[in-house]
Amino acid sequence: MSTTIPTPSPLPIPGGTTKPPLLNYILSFLLVGLAWGFTTPFLRRAAKSHNPPAHPLLERDSVKRSVVKRKTLGAFFAVTDLVKNWRYALPLGINLSGSLWFFLLVGGSELSLTVPIVNTTAFLFTVIGEWWVEGKVISRETMLGMFLCLGGIALCVQSKQGV
Question: Is the pTM of this model over 0.90?
Fold first, then answer.
């Protein structure tokens, strides 16, 4: 006597479609662009103002004599010192989570739209972040470039509507 285990049927999606609504994709693109672009000025500011403590291990003669030990330990302490600094670690975590979101987004959306839209929004959010964090003035040329980028995104999306 054999028994079969019933497989669950997929949950119904409102509207009867199998794809998430377009608004979900738009918000996802914006969130990834925000995570990548807006955190960049915060990372730069934290890296510039970072003042690492002295590490006695790097002063030992055995470490000073060995290029491999000196470089390896120096890199290790540089990374751990930055990660311990919350002003660097927090934006880095957000930035890296954007990479995870991007990976998930690529699996469910059109690649020829995802990459240009996310990279362009990252650029736009970087400019806005520099204005917010560093007080940089957004020049007329940069503003024009931002609007042209938005126009390019609109053209990319419009070209895919007929497909």
Answer: no
